[in-house]
Write a structure and sequence with these properties.
Number of helices: 1
Helix content: over 70%
Oligomer: single chain
Strand content: under 5%
Shape: rod-shaped
Number of strands: 0
Structural class: mainly alpha
């Protein structure tokens, strides 16, 4: 084996090693990219859920206020009925 053949063989093996490392890095980055996309999707759904929760809490507060108003009116009406019966 001559020196130039040994150098060429060594360079070819080094290129093969570099390509293998690059392939491994590509596969790892592809998986990281998938995870990042999944996180983005989950985050979006979490934001939507949070917005819906805020709207529901607001609607619940409005319903509670309406219920309190109706209860006050009921007390007033009951007092009026009691006053008329006397």
């Amino acid at each position: 084996m001559t020196m130039s053949v040994a150098v060429s063989t060594g360079a070819l093996m080094l290129i093969g090693l570099i390509l293998t490392v690059l392939l491994m890095q590509y596969l790892r980055l592809r998986e990281i990219w998938r995870v990042a996309l999944a996180c983005r999707k989950v985050t979006r759904w979490a934001q939507i859920g949070e917005l819906e929760n805020r709207e529901l809490r607001s609607a619940l507060r409005a319903e509670k206020a309406h219920l309190e108003q109706l209860q006050r009116k009921l007390v007033i009406l009951q007092d009026l009925i009691c006053a008329q019966e006397r």
